[in-house]
Design a protein that fits this description.
254 residues, alpha+beta, 13-stranded mixed beta sheet, 5 helices
């Protein structure tokens, strides 16, 4: 039985890719993305330029990361084929991707418009997909086939577009964050305390900011004026390697 093309992300979706291939030794894990902060705004020991340079260096040496975004209605999900029309309506979308910064080992968890949900797992360049019933329905799968697919991992590279996979890679998101930070022109820097850890806060117009762990110089939160949603980064250098699903949980598509 033939399968319809799967739902793919629109142009405002996650994008990850600059530090692929780095092999430096792991550093201490980043500070996470909690919103609690004690406003201590002490005089910073570094200029904004020095903080950005140190952060970029730390990111280039990183080996893995977890990236989370909750995207607003300006970021619709698009589906291939006529059956995906209902899934392309604008609605809140959350995307979490975690894994290596080589692009060969990561897991993406996507909550899509209309109640659809899908996991995309990449292990050694093999792609596995696990979607709920609403996801497979939006992809045009008949009900009897959906009963077979739900709860299983579907294995077939051709079922998801290569450019979509690239947008989900943690390394591509990191590249996007670097471009956003460079383009924002952050000039103000403050020292603060968040969850008991010292952080630097880069500030710009409006609510634009970058929160950076002072010990590791790795960012935990990026918000720029060109995007309506922030990006939270955590588990730097601490994401375990992903493994392929058990054979009895894989549905192979011909």
């Amino acid at each position: 039985m033939k399968y319809r093309p799967l739902v793919v992300l629109g142009s405002c979706a996650l994008a990850f890719g600059l530090v692929a291939g780095c092999s430096a030794k792991p550093a201490v894990s980043g500070a996470g993305s909690s919103a609690s902060s004690a406003s201590s705004s002490a005089s910073p020991s570094k200029s904004a330029g020095e903080v950005i340079d140190a952060m970029m260096k730390a990111m280039q040496q990183a080996t893995s990361v977890r990236v989370a975004q909750v995207q607003g209605s300006s970021s619709p999900v698009q589906a291939s084929g006529s059956a995906g029309a209902s899934a392309s309506a604008a609605a809140p979308v959350s995307v979490v991707s975690e894994g290596s910064l080589t692009g060969a080992n990561y897991l993406s968890d996507l909550s899509l418009a209309g109640g659809s949900h899908v996991n995309v797992l990449v292990v050694d360049d093999q792609t596995y997909l696990q979607g709920n019933d609403a996801y497979w329905a939006s992809a045009g799968s008949p009900e009897d086939l959906r009963r077979t697919l739900v709860g299983k991992w579907v294995s077939k590279q051709a079922m998801i577009d290569g450019s979509t996979l690239n947008k989900l890679e943690p390394s591509t998101v990191i590249a996007e964050q670097v471009a956003d930070i460079r383009g924002q022109g952050f000039k103000k820097v403050e020292q603060d305390t968040r969850d008991g850890r010292q952080v630097f806060r880069l500030r710009a117009n409006g609510d634009a900011e970058v929160v950076i762990d002072a010990a590791t110089m790795l960012p935990s939160r990026v918000k720029v004026t060109s995007r309506s949603f922030p990006t939270d980064l955590s588990e730097w250098n601490a994401v375990p390697l992903k493994t392929a699903p058990p054979e009895d949980q894989i549905v192979k598509v011909r």
